[in-house]
Structure formats: structure tokens, C-alpha cells
Amino acid sequence: MTYQLGLTFFGLTPAYKKIILEEIFTLCYHSNGGFTHDEIYNMPLRYRRFYIQKLIETHEKQNEEIEKKFGNGNLIDDKSSKPGKLAPPPIPDFAFKARAPKK
Question: Looking at the domain assignment, is residue 20 inside a domain?
């Protein structure tokens, strides 16, 4: 039997699944073990986005405090990166641009 619709099953598209996996990785990695993969995967979308937003706000607040303490805007000197001066890992901006695929 040949189906004229592209997909023969119900589920997420590969592009949307990649976005979800990126969000799961971001929360698992940057929350320092605060969440497990299963907790985030089963979490409602609005809660997952809320936690990602709070994580971004926390990192921005930490960056501001470090800038005040050291007096410069750059956490890493591009000309001579010294051990011990690491910028916090970036949180991808696509985490808030993801939309469910339209039917």
C-alpha cells in the first residue's frame, strides 16, 4: 500500500526532534544535574521554556556581577586566554524560536 502523505506514522519531524533534544541537553548540562533527561522530555513545553529562560537570566546576572568585579566586559581575553577565566557556555537562542510543525 502506498501512502500519498509523506509520513506513514504519527510522531515528530526530524527537525523538531533535534530542537527538543537540544533543549533537553541544554537544561541537563547547564542545570548541573538539576534535571534528568526523562524529567525534561516529559515536562510540558511551557515549563521547559520557563526553566531555559530562568537559566539565561541567571547566567546574565552572573556575567554582570563578574563584569562589575573585574571591571571589563570580556570574560576571556582573545589574545591570551588564561586558564581559570572561562566564559559560561552559551545557551542557544533557537530554544525560544522553536514551534511545533503545522499539520
Answer: yes
The secondary element (H helix, E strand) that includes residue 58 is: helix 45-70
Number of domains within the chain: 1
What's the pLDDT tens digit per position in 1-58?
A: 555 656 566 777 888 888 888 989 988 888 888 888 899 999 998 999 999 899 889 9
Whether 2 maps to a domain, the answer reads no
Nearest Cα to Cα of residue 67 among 55, 76, 75: 75
Question: Is position 103 within any domain?
Answer: no
Q: Is 27 exposed, middle or buried (0-12, 13-18, 19+ CB in 10 A)?
A: buried
- The closest alpha carbon to 19, from 75, 88, 101, belongs to 101
In this structure, what are the phi and psi dihedrals at residue 8, rounded to the nearest 5 degrees?
Answer: -105, 10
Decide if 91 contacts 59 (C-beta within 8 A).
Answer: yes
